[in-house]
Amino acid sequence: MSEGDPLPKAIATTYYNAGLTVDQLTVLVGATSAQRFRLLKADLEEDPLDLAGPDDIDIYEGDLTTVDTRADDDC
């Protein structure tokens, strides 16, 4: 969604608040965006997973490794 266009946000909000059917949503935003909205709505409606972090692994243990992301000039 574009920050400058409030219409897609309004359509999504209306759908999430049960103001639009899936068919209406598909007509307004297209099949691909409608599917994304449907998946997001399903995720938002489910209870989040209550997963505890690992207690036997220290992810910050050990030496730091860095990666040079600069492009080689020889390519």
**Number of DSSP-assigned strands:** 0
Order of helices and strands, N to C? HHH
Global geometry: elongated
Largest sheet: none
Share of helix, binned: 40-55%
Structure description:
This protein is an all-alpha fold. The chain has a domain at 6-45. 45% of the residues lie in helices and 0% in strands. The protein contains three helices and no strands. The chain has helices spanning 6-16, 22-29, 31-45. It is elongated, with a radius of gyration of 21 Å.
List its salient traits:
single chain, 75 residues, 0% strand
Summarize the model shown.
The chain has a domain at 6-45. The chain has three helices and no strands. It has helices at 6-16, 22-29, 31-45.
